[in-house]
Design a protein that fits this description.
471 residues; alpha/beta; Rossmann fold; Isoleucyl-tRNA Synthetase, Domain 1; six-stranded mixed sheet; four-stranded parallel sheet; 14 helices; 16% strand; binds adenosine monophosphate; binds zinc ion
Length: 471
């Protein structure tokens, strides 16, 4: 289904490119996972939801996707934070790993095929570093750490387009994260120092722990091979993390590491990147505590094109919440309609909406166009529903199309939630009875009771209509 028209913007070439998988039967995709030193914030979830969209879209098009997401359970931040909180390292990272999986479920993010943990892949990392040493791309420093020599890898900078500053050649950086003005030899293996405490491995490279970047090279290539199709992450990962992943992997294998690099822009708060460092963040749990529907958070994070920055506001969340209400009410109406007339245009309308939906997402996941297509369609069909012009069998076809769309969006979920609770059905019947008997005060009381249950009634020429509305 329109598989051949899929186009992605590739950070490597800074161009939109037609997507040509290595093996059309199975796409191999790697996404950088969370560093489990705290609850992930909703900026992180913008990245994970974007990646979920990439995968769901490929699946909608009929591709099979093998998706790997790592868990960074050892790095500078996990060690520092667990020490500060005086919790054993393993217990600390396990706690936040578990929380991460709970959050994935709340946000209806599909699970990857595999979640390798860094701490369970130390031998693979050591092997990779040894291979870099034997090929002359790595060296040991006086303090017994190992570094990657960027001047030995002449393609260094091909992803971030960074220029190597000749003055800084030979200088080294040991931190996992650093800025562009610190283009320097980066660490592969950190020799143990007292502040690492209980966190170390005794290996052929000596006592120590891996650097952050080598984790992703070793784990992605273990599960996906030397060359794979797609690698995603936020734009902050382009440099140094992904640049370094390319350097380590391609220097070791002599082969191209990844064909398509996809990066999402940041979620901002008042113009600044949402981040732990700035303290301007909300975790998913912060928002759920405020009684915000996680599906609205999901839609908000999805609804701006992934390559555009998105400013987080509560008004934005409110309008995402209203859009979901509209979708649910639409499906509920379709579930109930039993129009008599036959509308010959329906088949045609379905074909058009499916094509437009597909064209929009095939164009580098253009969600803004896709959502406009979707809500125009809903408006058109709602007008026909108002006129009682949708037959049962047509409604079923539309519901099927909507289910297909939701397999990509993941914002409606269980269709049963769109229908009326039994208790409310009884109340509506009682109210109709009261109205027939002109018992207006009883009818009003029931209307108020339903309103408190989040159900709004509307009396129309075709009978009573109801909407689900969050109070
Ligand atoms: P981390 O746990 O810090 O390694 O981040 C996990 C993912 O979230 C990475 O792909 C980051 O690039 C991404 N990320 C971090 N902050 C933001 C943000 N404010 N907006 C969008 N993505 C982000
Ligand atoms: Zn990574």
């Amino acid at each position: 289904m329109h598989k051949n028209q899929l186009v992605f913007f590739n950070t490597l070439t800074r161009k939109k490119e037609k997507f040509n998988p290595i093996n059309p039967g199975k796409i191999r995709m790697y996404t950088c996972g969370p560093t489990v030193y705290d609850y992930a914030h909703i900026g992180n979830f913008r990245a994970f939801i974007f990646e979920d969209l990439v995968k769901r879209w490929l699946e909608y098009l009929g591709f099979e996707v093998f998706h790997v997401m790592n868990i960074t359970d050892v790095d500078d931040k996990t060690i520092k934070r667990s020490k500060k909180q005086k919790i054993s390292f393993k217990k600390f990272t396990n706690f936040y790993t578990k929380a991460f999986f709970e959050d994935l479920e709340s946000l209806n993010i599909k699970l990857a095929n595999c979640y390798p943990r860094a701490t369970e892949h130390i031998p693979e990392m050591v092997d990779l570093i040894e291979s870099l040493l034997s090929k002359g791309f790595a060296y040991k420093s006086k303090e017994k750490s190992f570094y990657f020599s960027i001047r030995k890898f002449d393609k260094y900078g091909k992803l971030s387009k960074i220029k190597i500053d000749k003055l800084k050649l030979g200088k080294r950086i040991k931190a996992d994260e650093y800025e562009k003005d610190q283009v320097q030899d980066f660490v592969l293996w950190k020799a143990w120092v007292a502040k690492d405490g209980e966190v170390f491995w005794e290996t052929k490279l000596g006592k120590g722990r891996p650097g952050w970047h080598i984790e992703c090279s070793a784990m992605s290539m273990k599960y996906l091979g030397k060359t794979f199709d797609i690698h995603c992450g936020g734009v902050d990962n382009i440099f140094p993390h992904h640049e370094n992943e390319i350097a380590q992997s391609e220097a070791a294998t002599g082969q191209k590491f990844v064909n398509y690099w996809l990066h999402n822009e940041h979620l901002l708060v008042e113009g600044c990147k949402m981040s732990k460092k700035m303290g301007n963040y909300y975790t998913l749990r912060d928002l759920i505590k405020k009684d915000i529907d996680p599906k609205a958070i999901r839609l908000l994070l999805l609804s701006t094109h992934y390559r555009a920055q998105l400013n987080f506001t509560f008004e934005g969340l409110e309008s995402a919440s209203r859009a979901i209400e509209r979708l649910r009410n639409f499906l509920r109406r379709l579930q109930e309609t039993d129009g008599q007339s036959c509308n010959k245009e329906i088949e045609k309308k379905i074909e058009i909406v499916k094509k437009d939906f597909c064209d929009a997402l095939n164009d580098d996941l253009n969600v803004s166009v896709m959502l406009a297509v979707l809500f125009d369609f809903i408006r058109e069909i709602n007008n026909l529903l108002d006129e009682n012009l949708i037959r049962r069998e047509d409604a079923e076809k539309i519901i099927d199309v909507m289910k297909g769309f939701d397999s990509v969006l993941g914002i409606i979920g269980d269709l049963d939630k769109c229908s009326l609770p039994k208790e409310a059905e009884i109340l509506i019947k009682e109210r109709e009875e009261a109205r027939k008997n002109k018992n207006w005060s009883k009818s009003d009381k029931i209307r108020k009771k339903l309103k408190n249950m989040g159900i709004i009634l509307e009396d129309t020429p075709h009978g009573i209509r109801w909407y689900l509305k969050k109070s």
